[in-house]
Amino acid sequence: MSRPPGEARGLGKSIQASRLERGWSQTELAMRAGVSRPTISRVELGEEASTRTLHRLVEVLNLVLDVRKNDSPP
Questions:
Q1: Which residues form the HTH cro/C1-type domain (predicted)?
Q2: Residue 10 to residue 6: CA distance in whole angstroms
Q3: Residue-level pLDDT at 69
Q4: Cys staple from 63: which of 26, 34, 48, 58, with CB 3.0 to 4.6 Å?
Q5: Domains, the chain, ranges and CATH?
């Protein structure tokens, strides 16, 4: 799933903020979501992540992933 760099960073920061609000370490979130701790780190840094990984994270953190049509030309 390819997203513009700014969007990926913004999503990563939202996930990180939600994790920190709960007082969870990256290891705790990884365990709850069934992914590795390095995966959490990469997502929080705004690097690419699979749709499945993102779905697991937003589900565990009780977030909403809003998908919208991009009206901008490629």
A1: 15-67
A2: 6
A3: 75
A4: 58
A5: 5-59 (1.10.260.40)
